[in-house]
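[Discussion] Sanity-checking designs against the backbone

I'm trying to build intuition for which residues belong where. Below is a C-alpha cell string of 130 positions. I'd appreciate it if someone posts a full sequence so I can compare it with mine line by line.
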C-alpha cells in the first residue's frame, strides 16, 4: 500500500477531534474546519473523517437516531447518550472483558471487542427537570 500523502486539512480535523469532548457530527466538524479552510467542502471533511477512522485515529459512533458522531479518543471506552438533549459523553470506567468472553461462548465466530452506549439523562438536563 502506498504511503498516505500528508494533508493539512486532515491534521486540522484530527486536531479538532482530539481537543473536543463533544463527539461532533461531520457537519459540526465541517463548521469548525471551515474557519481555517474557507474553501473546504463537506465531502472532503467526510472523506478525511472516514480515513481517520479507517486508520484508527478516530472512532465513528452511530447513535440510535442514525446520526454518526466522531471521537478523537480512540482508547476503548464506553459512552452515555442523554435521552433529553442527545449529548454523547465519555464514561470513565473500566472496559469489561467478561462481556467479550460471554459473547464468545454464544457466538460461532470470533469476537474481538464490543461497543456499548448507556442511555440516561445528563446532569445538565436532570438539573433542569428538578
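Best answer:
Here's mine. Compare freely.
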Amino acid at each position: 500500500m502506498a504511503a498516505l500523502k500528508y494533508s493539512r486539512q486532515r491534521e486540522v480535523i484530527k486536531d479538532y477531534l482530539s481537543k473536543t469532548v463533544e463527539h461532533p457530527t461531520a457537519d459540526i466538524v465541517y463548521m469548525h474546519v471551515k474557519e481555517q479552510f474557507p474553501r473546504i467542502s463537506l465531502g472532503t471533511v467526510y472523506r478525511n473523517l472516514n480515513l481517520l477512522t479507517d486508520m484508527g485515529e478516530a472512532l465513528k459512533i452511530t447513535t440510535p437516531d442514525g446520526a454518526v458522531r466522531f471521537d478523537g479518543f480512540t482508547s476503548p471506552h464506553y459512552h452515555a447518550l442523554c435521552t433529553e438533549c442527545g449529548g454523547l459523553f465519555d464514561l470513565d470506567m473500566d472496559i469489561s472483558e467478561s462481556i467479550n468472553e460471554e459473547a464468545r461462548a454464544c457466538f460461532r465466530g470470533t469476537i474481538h471487542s464490543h461497543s456499548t452506549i448507556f442511555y440516561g439523562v445528563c446532569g445538565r438536563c436532570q438539573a433542569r427537570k428538578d
